[in-house]
Amino acid sequence: MSDVQTFIDETVKEHPVVLFMKGTAQMPQCGFSARAVQILRAVGLKEVVTINVLDDDGVREGIKVYSDWPTIPQLYIKSDFVGGSDIMAEMFESGELEKLLRDEKVLSDD
Q1: Does the predicted TM-score (pTM) go above 0.90?
Q2: Is residue 33 in some structural domain?
Protein backbone atom coordinates (compact mmCIF):
# COMPACT_ATOMS: atom_id res chain seq x y z
CA MET A 1 0.00 0.00 0.00
CA SER A 2 1.42 3.40 -0.94
CA ASP A 3 1.92 6.15 1.63
CA VAL A 4 -1.13 7.98 0.26
CA GLN A 5 -3.33 4.89 0.46
CA THR A 6 -2.05 4.21 3.99
CA PHE A 7 -2.85 7.81 4.99
CA ILE A 8 -6.39 7.55 3.55
CA ASP A 9 -6.99 4.12 5.11
CA GLU A 10 -5.76 5.23 8.56
CA THR A 11 -7.77 8.47 8.38
CA VAL A 12 -11.10 6.80 7.59
CA LYS A 13 -10.50 4.13 10.25
CA GLU A 14 -9.38 6.60 12.93
CA HIS A 15 -12.33 9.01 12.73
CA PRO A 16 -16.07 8.20 12.83
CA VAL A 17 -16.94 10.63 10.01
CA VAL A 18 -14.52 11.81 7.32
CA LEU A 19 -15.31 14.02 4.35
CA PHE A 20 -12.74 14.26 1.58
CA MET A 21 -13.58 17.56 -0.09
CA LYS A 22 -12.27 20.48 -2.11
CA GLY A 23 -11.47 23.20 0.40
CA THR A 24 -12.41 23.21 4.08
CA ALA A 25 -15.69 23.10 5.97
CA GLN A 26 -15.27 26.83 6.61
CA MET A 27 -14.25 27.62 3.03
CA PRO A 28 -15.43 25.00 0.51
CA GLN A 29 -13.82 25.37 -2.91
CA CYS A 30 -16.61 23.83 -4.98
CA GLY A 31 -20.38 23.71 -4.90
CA PHE A 32 -20.56 19.96 -4.33
CA SER A 33 -18.23 20.17 -1.32
CA ALA A 34 -20.24 23.11 0.06
CA ARG A 35 -23.44 21.08 -0.34
CA ALA A 36 -21.89 18.09 1.45
CA VAL A 37 -20.90 20.27 4.43
CA GLN A 38 -24.38 21.85 4.53
CA ILE A 39 -25.99 18.40 4.60
CA LEU A 40 -23.81 17.23 7.49
CA ARG A 41 -24.61 20.41 9.42
CA ALA A 42 -28.33 20.08 8.63
CA VAL A 43 -28.42 16.55 10.01
CA GLY A 44 -26.89 17.91 13.23
CA LEU A 45 -23.42 16.38 12.98
CA LYS A 46 -21.01 18.31 15.17
CA GLU A 47 -17.79 16.44 14.59
CA VAL A 48 -16.52 15.65 11.14
CA VAL A 49 -12.95 15.41 9.93
CA THR A 50 -12.48 17.12 6.59
CA ILE A 51 -9.54 16.48 4.31
CA ASN A 52 -8.84 19.16 1.71
CA VAL A 53 -7.80 17.25 -1.41
CA LEU A 54 -6.58 20.48 -3.02
CA ASP A 55 -3.67 20.47 -0.53
CA ASP A 56 -2.23 17.25 -1.94
CA ASP A 57 -2.53 15.89 -5.49
CA GLY A 58 -1.60 12.43 -4.21
CA VAL A 59 -4.59 12.40 -1.88
CA ARG A 60 -6.81 13.96 -4.55
CA GLU A 61 -6.09 11.11 -6.95
CA GLY A 62 -5.58 8.49 -4.25
CA ILE A 63 -9.04 8.84 -2.75
CA LYS A 64 -10.58 8.06 -6.15
CA VAL A 65 -8.56 4.83 -6.26
CA TYR A 66 -9.29 3.98 -2.62
CA SER A 67 -13.06 4.23 -3.07
CA ASP A 68 -13.20 3.33 -6.76
CA TRP A 69 -15.37 6.46 -7.07
CA PRO A 70 -14.45 9.16 -9.62
CA THR A 71 -15.66 12.32 -7.90
CA ILE A 72 -15.05 14.42 -4.81
CA PRO A 73 -16.46 15.02 -2.19
CA GLN A 74 -16.53 11.57 -0.62
CA LEU A 75 -18.11 10.76 2.73
CA TYR A 76 -16.97 7.93 4.99
CA ILE A 77 -18.86 6.84 8.10
CA LYS A 78 -17.13 4.32 10.39
CA SER A 79 -14.61 3.66 7.58
CA ASP A 80 -17.35 2.74 5.07
CA PHE A 81 -17.66 4.77 1.89
CA VAL A 82 -21.12 6.34 1.75
CA GLY A 83 -20.97 8.41 -1.44
CA GLY A 84 -20.70 11.89 -2.87
CA SER A 85 -22.92 14.93 -2.50
CA ASP A 86 -25.76 13.59 -4.69
CA ILE A 87 -26.01 10.37 -2.69
CA MET A 88 -25.70 12.35 0.55
CA ALA A 89 -28.56 14.64 -0.57
CA GLU A 90 -30.80 11.67 -1.42
CA MET A 91 -30.01 9.99 1.90
CA PHE A 92 -30.60 13.25 3.78
CA GLU A 93 -33.99 13.83 2.15
CA SER A 94 -35.15 10.28 2.86
CA GLY A 95 -33.91 10.37 6.47
CA GLU A 96 -31.50 7.53 5.73
CA LEU A 97 -28.37 9.59 6.48
CA GLU A 98 -29.57 10.56 9.95
CA LYS A 99 -30.60 6.95 10.65
CA LEU A 100 -27.18 5.66 9.55
CA LEU A 101 -25.38 8.21 11.75
CA ARG A 102 -27.58 7.26 14.72
CA ASP A 103 -27.19 3.51 14.08
CA GLU A 104 -23.42 3.95 13.99
CA LYS A 105 -23.60 5.95 17.26
CA VAL A 106 -22.05 8.99 15.57
CA LEU A 107 -25.08 11.24 16.01
CA SER A 108 -26.64 11.59 19.43
CA ASP A 109 -29.85 13.19 20.63
CA ASP A 110 -28.17 15.90 22.69
Answers
A1: yes
A2: yes
